[in-house]
Amino acid sequence: MNLARLLRPRSVAVVGASTRPGSYGNLAVANLVTAGFPGPVFGVHPTAAEVHGVPCVPRIADLPLAPDAAVIATPAATVPGLVAEAGARGCGGAVVFAAGFAETSTPGGVRLQEELVAAAARYDMPVCGPNGNGIVAVAARAPLWGDAYVTRRPGGVALVSQSGNVAVNALLSARGLRLHTVVSCGNQAVAGAADYLAALAASDGVRAVGLYLEDAGDGRRLAEALAACADRGVGVAVLQGGSSALGAASAAAHTGAVAGDARVLRALVEEAGGAWAHNPHELLELAKTLACAAPPGPTGIAGSGTPAWGRPPESEREAPVVDQVPEAEHGVRVTGQVPGAERGVAVSERRGPEVGVLVVTCSGGDAAVAADEAARHGVPLATLSEATRVALQNLLPETATPGNPLDYTAVIFGDAARTAALITVAAGDPSVGPVLVCHDRPASVPEGAAAEWDGALEGIISAAEALPGRLVVASTLPELMPEEVAERLTGHGAAPVAGLTEGVRCAGALLRRTAGGERLREIAAAATRAGSAAGSRPAEHEAKALARSYGIPVPAGRTARTPDEAVAVAAALGVPVAVKLSGPDIGHKADIGAVVLDVRRPEDVRAAADRLLGLPVEGMLLVEEMAPPGVEMMVAVRRDGVVPVLVVAMGGTWVEVLDDTVLLPLPVTPEQVVAAVRRLRGAALLNGGRGRPPVPLAAFAALATRAAALAREEDLALLEFNPVIVGPGGTTAVDAVVARVGA
After folding, report:
1. What is the CATH number of domain 556-625?
2. pLDDT in the model for residue 659
3. Which residues form the ATP-grasp domain (predicted)?
């Protein structure tokens, strides 16, 4: 399916063009005329000769050419037939506004959508919708749009939204958001979000894409589209609205609670170097920032490619306010060269975990809040070297102390030269990646004060010219970043962000890493959905037998049907033992008292067995050796999400309470597992200390990768080992839950 003609049409037909004001057919024609669409436009209407000066023909077959895009603005019942007619005429694609299809969940609506899909498939023709607002190709001046539209200045941000309102609001926002293309994809009956993402990644001028998703759809297609973005250096920001059901797996395992659908999608997005948004405002600010940034590298921060990539094309850039700040009294001269490059720390070499964000402000309050927000959102702040601190001391007023956040105080607020010099000198430190500058500019300021506000802005703009792709400029409150200021900053390669918290998150997004297109294509290859986890659920002893066959260490043990048999098994194994109840309907054993640990005497084994057999749940006794002491961890594989993932967490009954989890899209290597474990908040427990030896992470990683292989080869929807006891005496999966694929 080729979306090129639909996303950048050179000719358009509006089917259902109407003379009735306010109708979709009337508005669609008006939008094309108002936008100054440069190609031929035709209406299709049974009687009207023209609409808004656009000539009309009675039928699609009467069009004088095969249009690249057909806008179908007619009632739902007519749509399948019109899609077929458009395909027969050779249209490159169609946009369908009408509702009344599968979203109604009625037999008639579902049938209509099936007919629409069949008609489009007959001609291999992409369709946007139904039940959406359409497509706006801002750069091509082609609004195939059924809602209000105001012509905007084009740029490098694309938006694909499963919510029509998110798309409408983005087009009407006043935030310096230079949009390239906006897609409101509706029901996604034919073309889905992943298809648009892949097509936009290949479009000239697209530098970042914002995705608003309610249903992530086909994981393979999404991973392949993210791979295309990684290959082209296109940034991605994602917001998921709502959450889908976790399925039956969550009822019998911890995995559903700590690795829900949204978290699986987030793991894929972050693996791709994307940014995860929490609301539409944040989504747009992140996408705008990524469009200004240099592309991410496979092992370094954004900017590990050619730094100048982050600058807008020459056609979009304004003439710099200050090409070169005059030499200041302190002898600092600001040019296009990033300070520090002469010491071998060019932007393309800035990489590694030590790189962080630099915060620059003239307010102690803003500095404190920015530091707090960075800590809250996990955004690392750079530690400035002594050499950088000395250089900054020569620029700062006597009342200021060099550090990060860098508070240069109100004493020099409005001094363009010193502001630019401070930013660029501090940014030249090898530990500094993105730079967050706090700057408020009210739309109206008291008479006589504008010169200081604008002087500070000019200094920031000059620094932006010297630091392409690295500068985020954030207001403390959203309303203090008016569109005029945002447009100026964008024109000089800086990302204007409305709000201090959003600024911290956007600067942090520039530290993103990506495994690259090859890794994402591996994920795509593994992303065949396993189906739901509603199939058979083997009992624990059966799950452990399966694990043992894959070389996963589990405790030695045997089943028993009576207390006498349990005593005999314990005697054969040697005490102490664990006595459990094992059955397909038994989930969290500790919650129902279905496990007794560290049982040593025969009479205690008998008593435990008697009590367990008296529980109101079906099962048989399982008597096992006690595992050697160690740290409790969890390993799980979930294959019924958007992509298969390996889940690692601190384990036991605390896994949901602590919510300390890392998800890794499959496939994974042992080295990736070890790195993931070190990202856990509880990782300090694994390092030993106070007489405890460190945990053997290599053995844990080997167990985890075998678990992933087991789940894949046995076609399991869910596999969970919790806890896995990891210690010097061995690594043992002491509990196991398996869910096979449902019908």
Report:
1. 3.30.1490.20
2. 75
3. 544-580
CB 120 within 8 A of CB 126: yes
Q: Which helix (H) or strand (E) holds 422?
A: helix 416-427
Give the C-alpha separation, 582 to 584, whole Å: 7
More confident residue, 566 or 303: 566
- Of 3.20.20.70, 3.30.870.10, 3.40.640.10, 3.30.470.20, the CATH number of 631-740 is 3.30.470.20
Q: Within 10 Å of residue 559's Cβ, how many Cβ atoms?
A: 19
Whether pLDDT at 328 is above 80: no
- Torsion (CA) 715, 718, 721, 722 in degrees, nearest 10: 180
Q: Token pair for residue 410?
A: 């109100």
The contacts of residue 217 (CB under 8 Å, 6+ apart) are 188, 192, 193, 194, 642
The answer, yes or no, to whether residue 685 has pLDDT greater than 70, is yes
The listed CATH number (3.10.450.60, 3.40.50.261, 3.30.1120.10, 1.10.3720.10) that belongs to domain 307-509:
3.40.50.261
Given this model, what pLDDT does residue 254 score?
54
Tell me the C-alpha distance between 39 and 37, whole Å: 6
pTM of the model: 0.88
Average pLDDT over residues 117-143: 97
DSSP tally for the chain: helices H, then strands E: 25, 29
What is the 3-class SS of 125-170, one letter each residue?
CCEECCCCCEEEECCCCEEEECCCCCCCCCCCEEEEECCHHHHHHH
**In 192-311, beta strands by DSSP E:** 208-213, 235-240, 275-276
- What does the alpha-carbon distance between residue 526 and residue 397 come to, in Å, rounded to a whole number? 58
Q: Just give the CATH number of 1-151.
A: 3.40.50.720
| CA distances (Å), origin 487, targets 282, 323, 670 | 18, 18, 47
225 — phi, psi (to 5°)? -65, -40
pLDDT score for 378: 92
Query: What's the pLDDT at 533?
Result: 55
DSSP label at 663?
Answer: E
Contacts of 534 (CB under 8 A, 6+ apart): 247, 248, 739, 742, 743
